[in-house]
Amino acid sequence: MTGRVILGVSGASGAALALDCARVLSRLGAKVDLVLSPMAERTLALEIGPEARSTLVGLAHRLHPVIDLGADIASGSCPVAGMIVAPCSMRSLAAIAHGLDDNLLTRTASVQLKERRPLVLLAREAPLTLAHLRNMTAVTEMGAVVMPPVPAFYLRPETTAQITAQIAARAVDLLRLGLPQAQAWTPEPKGNTP
Hints:
- The chain is an alpha/beta fold.
- It has seven helices and six strands; from the N terminus they run βαβααββααβαβα.
- Strands 3-2-1-4-5-6 form a six-stranded parallel beta sheet, sandwiched between helices.
- Helix 1 (15-27) packs parallel to helix 3, helix 4 crosses helix 5 (104-114) and helix 4 (90-97) crosses helix 6.
- Keywords: Flavoprotein, FMN, Prenyltransferase, Transferase.
């Protein structure tokens, strides 16, 4: 049994990443504790469609209101395997970097850091300001992994769905829950050289 994983979804572009992370976690047998920001709900509808929220919630074990700072996952005593924020807005990144536990998403991210559990942030913005870069440095120094959702072009993806699925699988792999889910790069065999 893989256990529980928190999936935080903030309002940055890249809502498909949240769905794909939930799908990978579901395949692994993880129980997903889902936290959606208000802007995440809006972005899911804008980028995927009106059914996106219900699809995502259907993949989760539990949905927690973002305002519920009394949820069990807001405490370090709640046993979870880690957390992914997909996508992670610059607002959420800044709050996590500065310990502003003002909602359940940022609080649970802080809990992962203080408990030394995996925290993977799919930080989504371009170009980056100096504030963004400093916040990324700060969370990295605290133990988080900042993983901008960069396509694995070497796999020659043909669709956006293939790109987001690979990024999500790599993010889940960073939690080290079981066998790797992402497609690995394999170099072409070199010819025999004297």
